[in-house]
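Researcher: Please predict.
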Amino acid sequence: MSQMKAAMYYSQNDVRIEDVPIPKISRDEVLVEMKACGICGSDLMEWYLKTRAPLVLGHEPSGVIVEKGRDVKGFDVGDRVFVHHHVPCLKCHYCLRGDFTLCRQFHETNIFPGGFAEYFKVPAPNLKLDTLKIPRGVSFEEATLIEPIGCCLRAIKKCGVRKGDIVAVIGVGATGIIHTALSKIFGAEKTIVSDLIDFRLKYAEKFGADVVVNPNRANLTEVVMAETDGRGVDLAVVTAPSLEAYKTALSVCRKGGKLCVFAPTSPGELLEISPKQLFFNELQIIPSYSTSHVETKEALELIKSGKIRVKDLITHRFPLEETAKAFKTAMENKESLKVVVLGRA
């Protein structure tokens, strides 16, 4: 068998199942049969993808090693694995300062052709640094949440959440809910979440949200001030790609507070910020993009220990043949959180 099925992305509304060659591996690589792969919010950002289309997406995969090169050590055919699609070099200026996601190699290492395919190839750097064996008791579906939890974990750690902090999370899709859970794990005294969809707010409560706000019915800034004695939150995390969300986040931060930039807006959208406000209020703006080999291991431990109930985040599952339907669900269904594409059982 030399051909396999893959979901080829042409645009958000044009995802086709096509026959493509099964990747050939070299002596220091492995071939993985995809068992599950999550759809990420970045998979739904057409502006981010259109210059690269057509391509096979999918960077939250888990699966089984079905072939390995003769020089591969530490992994065997039959191993259940999570594979991170980007890994740093550990040697450059950025890596030596812990800025792994800014490393040039980080952006050049990719699984091939992508996670939404029957099989994918794991390059040697990815295999050596950030391919994790999935422990017994953790399902393939649950393992797809390693990467998104890792992204949120890196952001929370960069922002230095401490015991007793009050945190606001604006936008509680899957990553917003993960931020909510992590804020409590890191000791937040109170977590206030905001979203326009009530279904998400109810879910957020299950994951530790203390106060939920739908901006259609209540003013988030007023709620925050009432909940913080007029002070504002220690940290506001924005997971919604919206300028309005960022403006609101700035308005709810206390003096000396932090704004976590967790979602990019479309190119050309600019946020006006007064240096005077930043200076006198000592506001901190902390962006956090992607995750590294450091956080993926911690994320797997959080899943394994049950501290984050990831299975409850998966609301929809589709076979690979229905990837177009999976994308449509992730984009349009107001009662979807994590949508997962499944390989062969």
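Model: The first helix runs from residue 46 to 49.
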